[in-house]
């Protein structure tokens, strides 16, 4: 689906157009003094060809990066990057995937559940020129929806240009990481309590899954931090100087989120080590108890073995002539067992 927003500076108003405007009013939109935003949501190849080959041709390498999720559906999205061409700026970002956000909001299996196989992030591709902003994505993205709502309420801000609108998309995208980081903190605190009280294989599986998600988030944040750093420091002429302060604000958020993700990664690694240590300690306690039981029973086994050798002569007490033979052997076994038990208690081994 193609959505077009056109800001007319002469009339100080914006209007929403359908995809027919790309053919019927193509020259007007290309040469306008206003601002044009074209959004492609889950487009088919024909719509991509209309925008990226007919209306505004881009480099084949950019087009290859744009439709990577369609060509390689089982592969992760293209990593975030910013690339400048002669007449446009090409930027790839990785917002959180909608299905992953649904699980984050409690709709479906927990994020650390083995049934959670949702991909962490999706791909948002952007082509930016002096008067044109093209966004491309195969999933329904909340940042794009928020930009549409913003333009309906604050139409006059469109006059600031596509670089300002693109900053709004990035800002809303980065804000989506906040609930995920909060979820990670809560999950780590909960798992920390269970590590020392109820260590189990299931708990280790949850730790491994959570660590995998943290590493994936950190990798995305690091790439996007580098992209925002390039956008904020004036490396690209298409980002006006007055808008760079807004990009720096988004960059500051990414720096803090990256530090939080690194801290969570270290904590997850520490919890895994603590889990292994806790399991080892628990195993040692079990082995100690079993060893104590074996040691207590060993003298009893020795006594029963001696009296079970079937000798009838020179045995004390005599089982044939004395009625105290069997009770005496039981008493000796009980005495050795009780003596061993209290000796262990005195040595504080139990």
Overall description:
The radius of gyration is 35 Å and the shape is rod-shaped. The protein has a seven-stranded mixed sheet, sandwiched between helices. With 350 residues, the chain is α+β, with helices and mostly antiparallel strands. The longest helix has 66 residues. It folds into two domains: 279 residues, CorA soluble domain-like (Beta Polymerase, domain 2); 40 residues. The termini are far apart. Helix 8 packs parallel to helix 11, helix 9 packs antiparallel against helix 10 and helix 9 runs parallel beside helix 11. A hairpin with a 4-residue loop joins strand 4 and strand 5.
How large is the share of residues in beta strands? 5-15%
CATH topology of the largest domain: Beta Polymerase, domain 2
Q: At CATH's second level, what is the architecture of the largest domain?
A: 2-Layer Sandwich
Helix content: 55-70%
Q: Using the CA coordinates, give the radius of gyration.
A: 35 Å
Structural class: alpha+beta
Q: What coarse outline follows from CA principal-axis ratios?
A: rod-shaped
Biggest sheet statistics: 7 strands, mixed
Task: Please indicate the count of domains.
Answer: 2
* Parts with pLDDT < 50 across at least 5 consecutive residues: none
Task: Output the helix-strand order.
Answer: EEHHEHHHEEHEEHHHHHH
């Amino acid at each position: 689906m193609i959505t077009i927003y056109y800001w007319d500076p002469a009339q100080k108003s914006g209007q929403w157009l359908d995809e027919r405007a790309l053919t019927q009013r193509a020259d007007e939109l290309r040469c306008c003094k206003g601002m044009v935003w074209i959004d492609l949501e889950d487009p088919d190849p024909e719509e991509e060809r209309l925008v990226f080959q007919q209306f505004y041709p881009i480099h084949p390498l950019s087009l290859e990066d744009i439709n990577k999720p369609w060509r390689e559906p089982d592969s992760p999205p293209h990593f975030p990057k910013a690339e400048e061409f002669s007449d446009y700026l090409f930027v790839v970002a990785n917002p959180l995937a909608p299905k992953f956000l649904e699980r984050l909001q409690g709709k479906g299996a927990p994020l650390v559940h083995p049934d959670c196989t949702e991909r962490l992030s999706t791909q948002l591709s952007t082509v930016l020129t002096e008067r044109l902003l093209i966004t491309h994505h195969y999933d329904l993205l909340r940042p794009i929806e928020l930009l549409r709502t913003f333009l309906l309420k604050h139409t006059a801000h469109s006059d600031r240009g596509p670089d300002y609108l693109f900053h709004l998309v990035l800002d809303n995208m980065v804000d989506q990481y906040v609930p995920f980081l909060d979820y990670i903190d809560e999950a780590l605190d909960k798992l920390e309590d269970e590590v020392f009280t109820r260590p189990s294989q299931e708990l280790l599986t949850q730790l491994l899954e959570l660590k995998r998600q943290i590493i994936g988030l950190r990798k995305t944040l690091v790439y996007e931090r580098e992209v925002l750093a390039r956008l904020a420091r004036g490396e690209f002429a298409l980002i006006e100087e007055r808008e760079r302060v807004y990009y720096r604000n988004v960059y500051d958020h990414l720096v803090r989120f990256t530090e939080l993700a690194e801290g969570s990664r270290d904590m997850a690694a520490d919890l895994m080590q603590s889990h292994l240590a806790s399991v080892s300690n628990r195993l040692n306690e079990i082995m100690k108890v079993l060893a104590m039981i074996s040691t207590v029973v060993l003298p009893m086994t020795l006594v029963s073995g001696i009296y079970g050798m079937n000798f009838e002569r020179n045995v004390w007490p005599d089982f044939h002539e004395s009625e105290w033979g069997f009770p005496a052997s039981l008493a000796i076994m009980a005495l050795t067992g009780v003596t061993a038990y209290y000796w262990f208690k005195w040595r504080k081994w139990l």
